[in-house]
Amino acid sequence: MRTGLTIYGCEPDEAVSFIEAASRFGIMPTIVEAPLSETNLELASGNRCISVGHKTGITPSILFGLSQAGVKYISTRSIGYDHIPLEYAARVGISVGNIAYSPDSVADYTIMLILMVVRHAKSTISRVQTHDYRLNDGRGKELRDMTIGVIGTGHIGGAVIDRLRGFGCRLLAYDCRPKFPVEYVPFDVLLQQSNLVTLHTPLNAATHHLLNRQRIEQMIPGAFIVNTGRGSLVDTEALLPALESGRLGGAALDVVEGEEGVFYSDHRRRSLENRLLSRLQQLPNVVITPHTAYYTDHSLSDMIENTLINCLQFERRAACAG
After folding, report:
1. DSSP string, 22-85
2. Active-site amino acid positions
3. CA 37 to CA 63: how far, in whole Å?
4. Contact 314, 72 (CB under 8 A)
């Protein structure tokens, strides 16, 4: 008998790969293009396992409905769990697992953002698009002349460090559990000595607004912030005035607070309700991209395969426990 898996928020390009891979793993997939919501959770009926993406938050009421439908396991197609209330899930008898995917996808993208922000790429490209070929008012910086602080040295943070070594910059790192061959320093020291800080730590209660007003004020004048982790690692209300005043040199953000409902949607004919995002995008020293650092062929393949493996491993554990 085949294991069933309902896959929510499955884009058309994912669906083709999911169907092909599921047949190899002996899994019967139910593909749902829409994200999981209270209006479609009944599509999980008959399947103990479901898969969700990171784009939409899951509420306690949805979890309760899933438990009533017989769901026992959720595999999120992301490294982070911040969109799922884990304690409530456990309370209604649902286990939650994440997946690993190629850290190179985010690491490569992080290096691109670092280079863009320190070389003023946004303003240069904007000028060229209007046929203004003059040099920028400000000169760029070379990475070999900079100290770069890496916050979080898991698989992605470690891959970023590996890439940065080739640029000859001084590297500092902070992590609650040091695990990588790099110079670890206390958090405050990293902020006070780094010309650029890049964030690669999970979002949880302890790291929410990790870079708040007080910590941003500790940073070197003219320093840069790069965030490819989660938007709420940075207090945007504190970040904006630091950027607008020139206290910080710039920011490159693949994730922002309140991105839900904005990123992954076409807003060309709609006004943005996220006023902070609008203000950020107006700044010439801020690069914004729509949570796309992870999005490569390789990482998508990893996500699909590891989602299916998670489901099978859960079913095997459940069979052994039974």
Report:
1. HHHHTEEEEE--SPP-TTTGGGGTT-SEEEE-SSS---HHHHHHHHHTT--EEEESSS--TTS-
2. 230, 259, 291
3. 10
4. yes
Residue 8 identity: Y
- List, in order of start, the domains of the chain with CATH numbers: 3-101+297-321 (3.40.50.720), 103-288 (3.40.50.720)
Could you read off the pLDDT tens digit of each residue along the chain, which spans 322 residues?
568 999 999 988 889 999 999 999 999 999 999 999 999 999 999 999 999 998 889 999 999 999 999 999 999 999 998 999 999 999 999 999 999 999 999 999 999 999 999 999 999 999 999 999 999 878 999 999 999 999 999 999 999 999 999 999 999 999 999 988 999 999 999 999 999 999 999 999 999 999 999 999 999 999 999 999 999 999 999 999 999 999 999 999 999 999 988 998 999 988 888 889 999 999 999 999 999 999 999 999 999 999 999 999 999 988 887 6
Judge whether 231 and 260 are in contact, CB under 8 Å. no
Give the pTM.
0.93
